[in-house]
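A reminder from the course coordinator: this example appears on the midterm review sheet, so study it carefully.

Given structure:
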């Protein structure tokens, strides 16, 4: 015989069970469930006898004072909307100003300044598309090389250097260096006068 759960007994006490006749019949036949049911009835009878505390007239104000900081007021919500709208307007102005500046400057890329032996600044002139492509390829290659060297430098020396998957990447970087050397001689950039 399967005993009734505490939840079924509580529901039966409050006449909220699905099959009251079956539970009543089980309680008549089972001493364990009947003892549990009587214990639950005694506890629930004590709860029912407890007086409900009276609320003072200030109870509503007390509840609002505890909740007011969570809900905020209309002025705070309006201020939040104005702040968000102002931030969006500033972002839009900055975006359009940048686009306008880029269009007026002819879309020229910013090129780093190099120093000559005499300490004078010289700028590489990127006049042909091949020069621009070469700059992009070399920049990408140097970035990949830097990442690879950082991985090797940060490897745990106690475990040894295990390149594993990075071995192919290192081989491609070496091959890329050799190909870049074949593309042009050092100092192939045209200098400004």
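Designed residues:
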């Amino acid at each position: 015989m399967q005993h009734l759960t505490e939840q079924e007994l509580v529901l039966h006490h409050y006449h909220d069970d699905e099959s009251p006749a079956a539970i009543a019949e089980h309680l008549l036949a089972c001493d364990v469930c009947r003892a549990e049911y009587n214990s639950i009835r005694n506890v629930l009878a004590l709860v029912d006898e407890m007086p409900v505390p009276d609320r003072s007239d200030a109870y509503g104000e007390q509840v609002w004072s505890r909740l007011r900081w969570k809900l905020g007021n209309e002025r705070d919500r309006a201020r939040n909307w104005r702040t968000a709208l102002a931030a969006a307007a500033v972002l839009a102005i900055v975006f359009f100003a940048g686009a306008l500046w880029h269009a007026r400057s002819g879309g020229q890329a910013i090129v780093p300044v190099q120093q000559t032996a005499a300490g004078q600044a010289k700028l590489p002139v990127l006049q042909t598309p091949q020069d621009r492509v070469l700059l992009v390829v070399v920049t990408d290659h140097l970035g990949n090389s830097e990442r690879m060297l950082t991985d090797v430098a940060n490897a745990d020396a106690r475990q040894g250097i295990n390149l594993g998957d990075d071995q192919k990447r290192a081989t491609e970087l070496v091959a890329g260096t050799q190909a870049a050397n074949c593309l042009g001689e050092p100092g192939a950039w045209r200098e400004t006068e």
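DSSP finds seven helices and four strands in the chain. Residues 59-104 form one domain.
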